[in-house]
Each structure stands twice: as structure tokens, then as C-alpha cells.
Design a protein that fits this description.
- By secondary structure, this protein is α/β, with parallel strands linked by helices.
- The chain is built from 20 helices and nine strands.
- Helix 4 packs antiparallel against helix 12, helix 4 runs antiparallel to helix 13 and helix 6 crosses helix 7.
- It starts with 8 loop residues before the first helix and ends in an 8-residue tail after the last helix.
- The structure holds iron/sulfur cluster (2 copies).
Length: 471
């Protein structure tokens, strides 16, 4: 029985409710009056229910699909401006006891080398990331109680926060580890993580069980209830996502919306981010074997519908997607992207070898400088900001500031200051020139005179050698 406030997976992600929602959406896909009323509601930036969001995604009326896209763009512009936050994944270990059939790190794959970074190797990887200009990392590692215990994760986080190479430092470490206990979540919180990220992969329990035949991850309920335990452990900044293509996208979209509603209703804070990866080729993984692959046009529709349904939740896209697709979804609602990623263990310092195995093939292989320049040329401000988490603006407090619109007074100045730091310390001459012009233009757009003056002073301080200024 569906119960948004329950802490039981089968009640807050109720299969019957999802199927009825899909039937409702299919029955109303040509219902112009209803779809227009949903779009009007979404335009208020107060969010949509999972049923309303499902109707938007299933909408079969071309001009209203187009309106959904335009509205997503408007919401994106209104709440996120033209800023795009940058991050990089850091793979610590590919040891894994799980049997996920879509991932080359699954335990039965005997033809990939297994590797776990030592603390010295982490120092080298992080130094390389700092030398590119990254300030925000997402740690990735397989589930392995012996090779990757929580102590290893905690020690690695301490190591990463302790590395300061030239003007570089990692100011926010997000963590993507397997579902774990309340006690371990408390340890992660105490270690000062930014966001705890865990993808559901698919909300369809039957499909989930086929895709996860062995290992602790095969326990659907334990995995699905992970955010509830994380919250109990004191974490208030959580990121969810599905791997589109594993199962029917409609089902997973509704599941994702129900999970977001559950977090808001039962945990007091909605998801900080939603990630929208799509399945990619990798060793032992052929996406053609997954019949639910999502085509580009539907993928864009999914991004637009999510933007309309959960306006205050950041949306992340990785280098799994080509620059062409990334360019399109930036307008529709994506607020964070990875740049210059390596998805193999040790990939930032070791030249690629034939036997190296990435978790998935990258479609966008450009350097961070190239990505930054590309964003600037598209009119976006690449932002290396990590201010909120460091100023204690997380969880409910963060959402309140977001919903009041006051966050804008922080985001744009911080984006410009962190971009300026990047330009001074890491950019190529061309990127520096384009970036400085963008900063000049963007400062002049700031209406508040005092803020404009203060920002100009801060930019001058950065030029004089100061670092890490923030609002
Ligand atoms: S998806 Fe994660 S848990 Fe599954 S095999 Fe890959 S690394 Fe292990
Ligand atoms: S000010 Fe806060 S919300 Fe805005 S970009 Fe920085 S960390 Fe994100």
C-alpha cells in the first residue's frame, strides 16, 4: 500500500502506485486541458506530484511537449542562472563483491585487473586533479568489505582534504559508496563529506533482482532504504539517480519522482541532486543487450520533465554523454557536469594501458580547460564553487535559502570568484581571455551596487594573490 512517509521500500516505492500512475499518464497523454494546468503549476516553481510529472513525460501533443522544454529552460534560467558547477569523479578501488550485470567491476569478471589506490597513490591522483583546477570530487568505489571497508573510505577522505598543492585544494568530497549502516553513515558525516550519492539503478524490483543476482546489493529493500538510514546517521545532503536504459524509462522516472517526494515528506529534505546517467559500453557490457535504451529525444524530455517537477534539485550529467547531448541538456536543466573525467582506478596519473578497465566508456574526452572554454563560449559561467557546504548551508537550511531565492546572491558571485581563481591558476591563454571577458560582462549585470563593488574588490584581491574568497 503506497505510503510516502513510510520507511519501507515497498511502501514509498509502491509497485501498484507506479503502475497506476503509468496508466493515468497514458490515459491523459492527449488531455490538453490537464497538461496545460500541470504546466501552469510547474511555472510557479513549486514542484509537481509524481502523477503530474508522469503526464508531462508521456504528453503526446507536440506544442505542449515544446512548452515543457521551454518551461524547463525558463526554470533553469530563473533558479540557476547561467552557472554550471564543475566536478570530477575519483575512482579509489574496483574491487567489488556484487554481481551487477551492467558493470565491468562485477565480482565474476575475471579478465579485468583489480586495483585499489594506496594513500600515496591518492595523493598523486588528487594532486593531478588539483593541477587541472578541480575543487570538487565525487569518490567512487566498489563494495568490498575486506578491500574497501569504511575505514579505508574515511582515511582516503582525510588524505584528500589534507592535500594542498600550489594553490590547489579539494574543498568538497562527495561520496558514492554502496548502501551501508546508520553507524557508517554517521562516520561519513563526521568526516565532512559533501553529498552522499547512491543511484537506485532501477526502481523496478523485478528488473532490479535480475540485474543484481548476487552480493549485498541484491537486497532491493536495503538498497532502496539507504537514504533513510543516511538521514538517520545525520547526513542531510543526498543525491539520487537511476541508470536509464536498465529498465523502462517511464517506470524509473516515476520511481525517481516518488523517491524525491518520500525524502521530502519522510526525511525532511528532498534530494540535493538527481543524476541522469544512461547506460554506456564497457568491458563485458554491451548496451545493445539492454532493450530499454533511451533515445536522445526521450532523454531530453526526461531532463525537461525532471526540471519542471523538482525545480530546486540540482541535476548532474557526466562525461558518459557526448558534448552534443551535454550542450542540449545544459539549457534544459542540468546544473552540474563532470569534466576531464577518468573512470578507471588511477586514471589521472597513469597513462592508459590496454588492460585498464574503465567503469564505462567516455563519450566526452576533452580536457578541463577545453570544457571550461566551451562553456564560456556557450555563455555559461563554469563554477568551482563549494561555498554552501563549507558555510553550513546544507539540508533543510539550504532548501529554505534556495526556495526564498536568496541563494542567487551567493551563487553568481561565488561562480565568478571561483572561475577567476581557475583562470589565474590553471587556464590556457585563450580560456583566460574568454573567461576574463565573461567575468567583466557578468559583474556589470549585477543590479545590487554594493555587491557589484564588493565583487570587483574581491576580483582584484584574487589578482593580488588571495584565494578562497566566498559569499
Ligand atoms: S555498479 Fe557498483 S556495486 Fe555494482 S558491480 Fe559495479 S562497482 Fe560493484
Ligand atoms: S553558493 Fe551554494 S548553491 Fe550556489 S553554487 Fe555555491 S555551493 Fe552551490
Amino acid at each position: 500500500m503506497y505510503n510516502v512517509k513510510s520507511h519501507k521500500a515497498e511502501e514509498f516505492i509502491d509497485d501498484v502506485e507506479i503502475k497506476e500512475t503509468l496508466e493515468y499518464a497514458a490515459a491523459n497523454r492527449d488531455n490538453r486541458a490537464l497538461i496545460e494546468s500541470i504546466l501552469d503549476k510547474a511555472a510557479l516553481c513549486k514542484g509537481l506530484t509524481h502523477r503530474e510529472a508522469a503526464v508531462l513525460l508521456d504528453c503526446n501533443i507536440p506544442d505542449l511537449v515544446e512548452r515543457t522544454f521551454r518551461l524547463a529552460e525558463e526554470i533553469k534560467k530563473k533558479l540557476y542562472g547561467n552557472r554550471i558547477v564543475m566536478f570530477a569523479p575519483l575512482y579509489l578501488s574496483n574491487y567489488c563483491v556484487n554481481g551487477c550485470i551492467y558493470c565491468p567491476y562485477h565480482a565474476k569478471n575475471r579478465h579485468i585487473p583489480r586495483k585499489k589506490l594506496t594513500q600515496e597513490e591518492i595523493v598523486r591522483e588528487v594532486t593531478a586533479l588539483q593541477d587541472m583546477g578541480h575543487k570538487r570530487l565525487a569518490l567512487e568505489l566498489g563494495e568490498h568489505p575486506v578491500e574497501n571497508p569504511i575505514e579505508y573510505v574515511l582515511e582516503s577522505i582525510r588524505t584528500i582534504y589534507g592535500i594542498h598543492h600550489r594553490n590547489g585544494d579539494i574543498r568538497r568530497v562527495n561520496v558514492n559508496i554502496a548502501a551501508t549502516t546508520v553507524q557508517n553513515y554517521r562516520k561519513l558525516r563526521d568526516a565532512g563529506i559533501g553529498t552522499y550519492i547512491l543511484f537506485q539503478e532501477t526502481y523496478d524490483k523485478q528488473k532490479y533482482q535480475m540485474l543484481h543476482p548476487t552480493g549485498p546489493k541484491s537486497d532491493y529493500a536495503y538498497h532502496t532504504e539507504a537514504m533513510d538510514r543516511a538521514r538517520e546517521g545525520g547526513i542531510d545532503d543526498m543525491g539520487i539517480g537511476v541508470l536509464f536504459g536498465l529498465s523502462g524509462y517511464r517506470y524509473d522516472f516515476v520511481g525517481l519522482m516518488m523517491h524525491a517526494e518520500h525524502m521530502e515528506a519522510a526525511l525532511g529534505v528532498g534530494p540535493h541532486t538527481i543524476s541522469v546517467p544512461r547506460i554506456r559500453p564497457a568491458d563485458d557490457v554491451n548496451p545493445d543487450e539492454f532493450s530499454d535504451a533511451v533515445p536522445d529525444d526521450k532523454f531530453l524530455h526526461i531532463v525537461a520533465a525532471i526540471r519542471c517537477a523538482v525545480p530546486y534539485t540540482g541535476m548532474i550529467i557526466s562525461t558518459r554523454e557526448s558534448s552534443k547531448v551535454r550542450e542540449k541538456v545544459l539549457d534544459l536543466g542540468i546544473s552540474q557536469i563532470s569534466g576531464a573525467s577518468r573512470t578507471s582506478v588511477g586514471g589521472y596519473t597513469e597513462p592508459e594501458r590496454d588492460e585498464d578497465t574503465a567503469q564505462f566508456d567516455l563519450a566526452d574526452k576533452r580536457s578541463l580547460d577545453e570544457v571550461v572554454k566551451w562553456l564560456i563560449e556557450l555563455g555559461y559561467i563554469p563554477s568551482f564553487c563549494t561555498a554552501c557546504y563549507r558555510a553550513g548551508r546544507t539540508g533543510e537550511r539550504f532548501m529554505k535559502i534556495c526556495k526564498s531565492g536568496k541563494i542567487q546572491d551567493c551563487c553568481t558571485p561565488n561562480a565568478l570568484l571561483t572561475l577567476k581563481e581557475y583562470l589565474l591558476d590553471y587556464a590556457s591563454p585563450d580560456t583566460m581571455k574568454a573567461g576574463d571577458e565573461l567575468i567583466r560582462r557578468e559583474i556589470e549585470k549585477i543590479e545590487n551596487e554594493a555587491l557589484r563593488a564588493s565583487l570587483k574588490r574581491d576580483i582584484a584581491s584574487l589578482e593580488a594573490g588571495k584565494r578562497d574568497l566566498r559569499y
